């Protein structure tokens, strides 16, 4: 048995090597390394795939979040509601722009933002909400959008882990993750479901004026070269990465299907196990399983992690410390006990290997290793 990977990018590349190599060679031949035609084509193809009217590629997912907040004219000292159980980038850009995060707890089974926390977090300075579609499924967007509309708030979806997930509204309308709020943002970090071979990101919107603003800010605040209409940043998806992403976008549905097959096998293996709580599928969203994250009950998560390591099985803790208790964000005045679900999850969650190239024999070994620990 080959070594087990959390994400097997090598085998994934080998399967599409000829397509990717040709795409890279085409860019090398053109020498259009910055803002080459592949960037525009990728944006158009991703818009067609997601159903978003406009897709603006950029350098990475963190930039996408920052540019979105700049384009929505969030001002220093204003406040943005954000879940405390997520990756730091989501709150990092809030602090960098002089805004204040208003943390909310998450649900204990789907790990998504708890809608009940929105009312508590509301205040006169709150201007926006950033729902994070954690691990691969959408937050309760119908409730979040209605709440935002009622209180005049902007919604920025963090879709870095859920590209391709589909949300169904109560009236039967369907929409892809990232296309429901004012702006959607995503990352193309290599391990993402749609990942490039470096850094990359994108923003989604259905508003033409906002699309123009996002595009302008990402390009030094200019519409026309050397004429700067606003303060901007330098955030470009380079042409090589766009070419790679164009190839991989054609395989994204099959990647999602493969991840779901792996998740289904895990679900079946751990069903009704007294010490392992599989992730719950949200009722209104499909799941693309960027991560397969269980909760360890009645035993030490860290001891299980260490045991799996001795068996050659990697695992990861996403995330060991909630954002409101991170040293960098203590200045915002939150304390231990403020968000008990997130604090509990940080002690219990463990993500098991899941990827598009998972061999059944490898997964059976992973499952047996987990079960052996408890036996």
Features:
375 residues, alpha/beta, three-stranded antiparallel beta sheet, 13 helices
Give a verbal description of the structure:
- The protein is α/β, with parallel strands linked by helices and 375 residues long.
- It has helices spanning 9-15, 17-30, 37-50, 61-71, 89-96, 116-121, 141-151, 208-218, 239-249, 252-270, 301-310, 340-348, 360-374; strands at 54-58, 79-83, 100-104, 126-129, 154-158, 166-168, 174-176, 183-187, 201-205, 222-224, 227-228, 276-277, 292-296, 349-352.
- The strands form 4 sheets. The protein has a 7-stranded mixed β-sheet with strand order 1-9-8-5-4-2-3, sandwiched between helices. Strands 12-13-14 form a 3-stranded antiparallel β-sheet.
- It starts with 8 loop residues before the first helix and ends with a helix.
- The radius of gyration is 21 Å and the shape is globular.
Question: SSE layout and pairings?
Answer:
Blueprint: H1 9-15, H2 17-30, H3 37-50, E1 54-58, H4 61-71, E2 79-83, H5 89-96, E3 100-104, H6 116-121, E4 126-129, H7 141-151, E5 154-158, E6 166-168, E7 174-176, E8 183-187, E9 201-205, H8 208-218, E10 222-224, E11 227-228, H9 239-249, H10 252-270, E12 276-277, E13 292-296, H11 301-310, H12 340-348, E14 349-352, H13 360-374
Helix pairs in contact: 2-9, 3-9, 4-5, 4-8
Question: Regarding quaternary structure, how should these chains be classified?
Answer: single chain
Which percent range describes the beta-strand content? 5-15%
How would a textbook summarize the main sheet?
Answer: 7 strands, mixed
| Strand/helix succession | HHHEHEHEHEHEEEEEHEEHHEEHHEH
Mean pLDDT: 97
Shape: globular
Number of strands: 14
- Main-sheet strand order equals 1-9-8-5-4-2-3
Radius of gyration: 21 Å
Structural class comes to: alpha/beta
Could you list the spans in which at least 5 consecutive residues all have pLDDT below 50?
A: none
Task: State the helicity in percent bands.
Answer: 25-40%
Number of helices: 13
Kindly report how far apart the N and C termini lie.
Answer: 23 Å
């Amino acid at each position: 048995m080959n070594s087990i990977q959390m994400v097997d990018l090598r085998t994934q590349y080998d399967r599409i090597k000829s397509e990717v190599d040709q795409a890279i060679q085409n860019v090398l031949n053109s020498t259009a390394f910055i803002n080459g035609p592949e960037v525009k084509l990728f944006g158009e193809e991703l818009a067609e795939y997601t159903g978003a009217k406009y897709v603006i590629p950029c350098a990475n997912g963190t930039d996408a979040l920052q540019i979105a907040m700049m384009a929505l004219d969030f001002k220093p000292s204003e406040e943005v509601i954000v879940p405390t159980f997520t990756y730091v980038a989501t709150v990092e850009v809030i602090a960098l722009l002089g805004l204040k995060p208003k943390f909310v707890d998450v649900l204990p089974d789907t790990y998504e933002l708890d809608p009940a926390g929105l009312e508590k977090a509301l205040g006169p300075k709150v201007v926006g909400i950033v729902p994070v579609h954690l691990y691969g499924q959408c937050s309760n967007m119908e409730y979040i959008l209605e709440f935002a509309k009622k209180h005049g708030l902007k919604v920025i979806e963090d879709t870095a882990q859920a590209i391709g997930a589909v949300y169904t509204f109560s009236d039967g309308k369907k929409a892809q993750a990232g296309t429901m709020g004012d702006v959607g943002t995503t990352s193309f970090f290599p391990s993402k479901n749609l990942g490039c071979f470096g850094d990359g990101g994108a923003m989604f919107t259905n508003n033409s004026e906002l699309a123009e603003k996002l595009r302008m800010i990402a390009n030094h605040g200019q519409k026309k070269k050397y004429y700067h209409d606003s303060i901007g940043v330098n955030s470009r998806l380079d042409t090589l990465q766009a070419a790679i992403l164009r190839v991989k976008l054609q395989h994204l549905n099959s990647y999602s299907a493969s991840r779901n097959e792996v998740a289904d096998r895990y679900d079946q293996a751990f069903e009704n196990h007294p010490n392992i709580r599989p992730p719950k599928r949200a009722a209104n969203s499909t799941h693309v399983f960027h991560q397969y994250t269980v909760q360890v009950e009645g035993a030490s998560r860290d001891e299980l992690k260490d045991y799996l390591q001795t068996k050659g099985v990697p695992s990861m803790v996403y995330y060991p410390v909630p954002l409101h208790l991170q040293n960098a964000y203590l200045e915002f005045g939150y304390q231990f006990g403020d968000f008990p679900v997130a604090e509990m999850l940080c002690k219990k969650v463990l993500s098991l290997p899941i990827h598009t190239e998972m061999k059944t024999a490898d997964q059976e070994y992973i499952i047996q290793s987990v079960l052996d620990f408890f036996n």
